[in-house]
Amino acid sequence: MGLPWLGETMDFYRAQQANRLFEDFVRPRIARHGKIFKTRLMGSPTVIVSGAEANRFFLSNEFKLVMSSWPSSSVRLMGKNSIMEKHGEQHRHVHGLIASSLGSSSAESLVPKLSKLVQRHLDAHWSGQERIYLYNFTKNLTFHIVFECLLGIDVELGMKEIFERILEGVFAPPVTVPGTRFSRAMRARKEIERMLVRIVRKKKEEMERKNSGGGGGGSEEGGVVLLPRYVAAMLRGEMSEEEVIDNIVLLVFAAYDTTSFAIAMTFRMLAHHPNCYQLLLKEHMDVKSRKGEGEDISGEDIKKMSYTWKVARESIRLFPPIFGSFRKAIVDIEYEGFTIPKGWKVLWTTYGTHYDPEHFQDPMSFNPDRFEEAMPPYVYVPFGGGPRVCAGSQLTRMNILVLVHHVVTRYDWSLIHPDEPITVDPLPFPVHGMPMRISPK
Ligand code: HEM
């Protein structure tokens, strides 16, 4: 358990910062103690578990045996009404709203809009350039995708910078003394709240006007777009204004660094594996060759990008954007002959199965074809599992496939630092922002 209070926190942070949390912290302890062991992190006694069975047990028993557990700074910055703090029926309602906007067929219907947005961003930021920074570019793009495609909100001047200040404080110590990361983030949170309140109220007025003019319930407005659906839920009395605002902030947090890192690592793997790149390129050139002059890709075309999705999934297996996440035992839990006392934390990890030769033969090698075979549940878990499974995995898929399509069909590219170091703060990212040489085809 390490030192009193501090436990093994310093070792944990050091390994995390070098993006070697699994290799330097978890794996040596698994070798000593087995796949379930205890430690103390940031004052909390914590059990770290690895393996598909542990993933299944802890992820599927959310609300029954465990509850997700976020640092208090994250909760205060996302807001206490966001999905991360909802349990039981209330959680199911908000998760259902997001997931039904983003199920696989709904997400496919976003493709035309997504494709236009991606092309607009490539025209604005890549045209005439010889060097771009892929990671930074995808962060900006993801921000616009979440707001414009998913939520149906126009990005206003300064909005992204305000959000970045919020996200910087999400895992910082919750110290409100002026000048700290957390207090800057709290100020930014208030700023964005003011902007979002104005936007949500305007939408509400619009929808109320339509309803009183006989325009119907409003819930169908915008199809899969989330803001009208949130506001319709508000009008039906199922969601408060605070819930809407907090869940908008949460979605940006959930999507921003994760998607950008997944895209960056997909390109890194393509740069390292030219044979895979040739196969992927052919897939996209085939899609393009079937299109008429100026005709854009559709949801149907996405289904023809199966090799690209295997490449992306394999890249995400090797470089999961989320290391794992914390749960808190809400009762004493009997597991594998041990008792985990109520109140203790449990940390499950993606690496515990992704790097295990029992599940992935030669796990450190890059082999997209391994995804041809069906995978047992709770083995491939970059998006988690159980009731809190990621609500945005389909949007992530569309985002990656559409971006890869337009990049590889329009540009030749190469990485300036093919082995650019990755650091973690608190999510992983390439330290130089992934500079890339590009030239139009
Ligand atoms: C590569 C990209 C992504 C990865 C790796 C990822 C990963 C995850 C993981 C592991 C969880 C579960 C956390 C837990 O169990 O504690 C999660 C939850 C969630 N994700 Fe994602 N995510 C990604 C992209 C997105 C996007 C694009 C969105 C939406 C725009 C999104 C929305 C959410 C939401 C709302 C939850 C909370 C679900 C709940 O608590 O019920 N994610 N994500």
Automatic annotation (TrEMBL):
It is found in: Membrane. It holds the Pfam family p450. It is a single-pass membrane protein. The keyword Repeat does not apply. InterPro entries: Cyt_P450, Cyt_P450_CS, Cyt_P450_E_grp-I, Cyt_P450_sf. Keywords: Heme, Iron, Membrane, Metal-binding, Monooxygenase, Oxidoreductase, Transmembrane, Transmembrane helix. SUPFAM superfamilies: Cytochrome P450. Its cofactor is heme. GO terms for cellular component: membrane. Heme binds at C390. One of its GO terms (molecular function) is heme binding. The keyword Iron applies. Belongs to the cytochrome P450 family. This is Cytochrome P450.
